[in-house]
Design brief:
By secondary structure, this protein is of the alpha+beta class. It has four helices and six strands; from the N terminus they run E-H-E-H-E-H-E-E-H-E. Strands 2-4-5-3-1-6 form a six-stranded mixed sheet, with helices on both faces. Strand 4 and strand 5 form a beta hairpin. The radius of gyration is 15 Å and the shape is globular. The N and C termini lie far apart (about 35 Å). The C terminus is likely disordered.
Amino acid sequence: MPNIIFKVNNYENFDAIENLINYIMTSSYIERCGWSGCFVQERGDIAEWVSNSFWAVKNAFYNTAGQLVQHIIIGFDDMEYITESEACRIAYAVSCFYFHQGYQIFWGTHFGSDNTESYRHIHFALNTINAATGERFFAVRNPESLKEYLSLNFPQMKWKWRIKGSFFQPRY
């Protein structure tokens, strides 16, 4: 059963966006990555480019405080039938779901973790400020909407979600 995990707290420090992107990209478990709504160039530091894209939106709406990035993880436990290609299809679907609502999003698929070698999962970094409206994203307001969307598009899976505290420590 796939788990949708919304990580909250400790994403208020200035370098939170870049730290999360670096965590996604520099992991030894990275398979693929992608993004929607970010201005990323093929050469250069992806974490810096994504961070600059997120900050451009935040600055345009004068909304630079509070939780700066929403970390979402979709984990597949030891579901053997989830291939890299299937994980990327799900990541792209989630990316489209939020992008069509006006949010910038970056994702990376990972295979394995420090605890389980076969743990396939996807990390998402979502800009908490909507690029179209300037409104703030709050995971606790409607986390069920992503589950409903994924249930419609991937009905063979029984989706569940939860909100969990971040494992990142703030650096002020």
